[in-house]
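Dear colleague,

Following up on Tuesday's group meeting, I ran the structure prediction for the two-component complex that the binding team flagged. I've pasted the input sequences exactly as they went in, so you can double-check that nothing got truncated or mislabelled along the way. The structure tokens for the whole assembly follow below. Feel free to forward this to whoever is handling the docking comparison.

Inputs:
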Amino acid sequence: MHKPDSHSVNLAAAFGFVLLAGVLIVLPHLLSFSQQEVLVLLVINVLLVCSYRLLTLTGEWSLAHAVIMGVGAYTSALVAKKLSVPVPLAMLAGASMAGFIAFLLSFPLFRMKGFYFLIASFAAGEVIRLSWKWSDLTFLFGGPKGIKRIPAFPDFLTIDFYEPVNYYYLCLVVVAVSLLILYRIEKSRIGLTFHAIHWQDKLAESVGVNTFRYRTLAFVFSAFFAGLAGALYAHYVGAIAPNRFSVEEMVYILIWAIVGGTATFYGPIIGVVVLTIVNEIVLRSLGVEEMRPMFYGALLIIAILFLPNGLESLVPKIKRLFRGRDKEGNGSLASPQVAE
Amino acid sequence: MTSKFTISRRDFLATTAAVTAMAGVSMPKFAFGKDNVVKIGFLAPLTGEVSAWGKPGLDGCKIWADWVNADGGVKIGDEAYKVEFIAYDDEYDPSKARTGAVKLVKEDDVKFVMMLGGDPWPGAAPIAEKENMLFSTLLPSDLSPETELLVAPCEVHPIYNVTGVEWLAENKPELKTAVVCAQDDSLGKPSVATYLAAFEAAGIEVLDEPIFFDPATTDFAPLMSKMLALKPDIICLDTCYADYVHPLVEQAFQQGFKGQMISCTADFYEKLVEKTSKEFMEGFIFQFPDFDDPAMNAEHVNFNKPNDFYSEYVKRYGKGEWSAVSWEYASIMDLWADAAGRAGTTEPVKVLEAMKVGGTGRQAFGEAKWWGKELFGIDNALVGEWPVVAIKDGKAKIQDFKSIPAWWEKHSDLMIKHMKALNQMYYQRG
């Protein structure tokens, strides 16, 4: 059987990367005004769901990720609005605060595993979210109405970041760098340890791996990038409120991750892109505004029934199709549990 | 075989007359020009837990448009314009509201955007400012001095809630104590402040602190038990969404409450009557009439053919589907069409000027004035009289129309005090 050499594989990867970059650069200019708005939020959500996947590498699924995103959004908004700190620095402060909160939460949360961790993370998230609504703290967080008139990303030379195309490019750069970091973490020894903890935590402990520390590390990294996504969101929309980071939003993150799949780095990205296009572009353009939840729900059920390993499981099939290897019968799918 | 077709002179004349008459009936009074369509944006929640205050409004607008278009359209300058509504579901989310506002204004070329308001408004606000677009809200608590292109020309939530309490105090003076609950959000907070002010003005004691429950609450039994433990004469459900009012009322019924209930809305109240009983719902006070009410034919009411509107709504969407907002967006359209007609243009800023000329306007329930500087920092809310409605024998009946400005004259200090205490003054919000 012919096996492609590493040179041709690298060449193909480079070509694919350049093609993808080209498409992403040209894309907003092919879209309508409102689709450009959707595109900005989509790019932010790509970072959100990819950051969530980092945590799932250790085998833990949190229900606090939307709230952690909110921590980044609130911190960045407050630092920029109340302390007049430049927005880019405020964003970093938001991401850092999200990481710090995750660090604090890790002490009680990682005393639990599995289902107990899931429920405890939900409770911890709700405590944070409800504190934003608490009357005594309204002077700070704005109560149920939240914070509005959040300073926008400052103009750079003649670039006005109110324009969605410009903000999209900013987000694209931030998200691309973030994804690169997340990818490098996953491919590093730390990332391999995350996998080890997921599948053989007792064995890992027996060879000296401090599973608590590694779980904390995954949680903090994951929270940092979720916080960054929150900051990008806050300074674009200009308003945040506690309900924006409720369990309903968390369900969306879970759906993106589950439907896309979490076995590969690109799985959640496929999930968020496909589902956003279906929900925000296709179903809206059909003029079925009031029926969208029904159609969306039906599509989710179909996806889960017929693609239990997520949309990512289609990618090897498509690759084989292009390579014409189907006839060779050499195509059992890679285990979804093995990270690409 | 050949057929022989003959027509008499009498038949010819009769047929011609009938066809001419039918054509005359079916033709609009004005012929629309080729491109004479004015588009109106409808940006509100059409799905999710707040959709009960969006979707029925869109349904009402469809009736409004059909009637106006059948009658020749809106006359602006020398031309008649057909009205077309373009809806976008904002899901009660500011980012979706921003996307929706961009689509409506920049792609669909609408001349006016109606919103429910509340949480989504801050997302749409920059679009209103940058694009110079006129927006309306049903929630004047969105108003602030920075939002000159936002108006509240119909509903003056939550200020009109004072009229229900005032009516209760006048007509049921034996009621001395109340408890208040609301969901903990941007609708619940200012509404609670309003009820607290109204109860204080009426000399009704509010037992304990208001209960703010989380919008994610699904089990209302403990909450109702807590309220009933205080043995109140009145249970006030504030401005709870329909999804909360129904289970709360059911709980009050199941836990044996016998006293008075008051709420801002009682949407789909016929279902409440079915779930409880006519006896239990008797005397339930709220603020939104059915438009088949004979009192809606009073001379001061400005809404066009309210009884017929209600019948048409029930015919199209079903009995029991009428809600607080079924008529409100349509009522705003009356005001907009009138202002656009007087301005002779659909340009948003000019329409706003025409709308506010003289400082008064024809609100649905009568002549009203543009007001709100003290509470919202800007006079962009149209405030006048508002009905007090009670359920009588399973049917909503207007009890009275009461003046909000008259109440404000006497008790503005109380309102400001409670709004401040809950951080709801325009300068305290966000």
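The first strand of chain B starts at residue 37 and ends at 44.

Cheers,
M.
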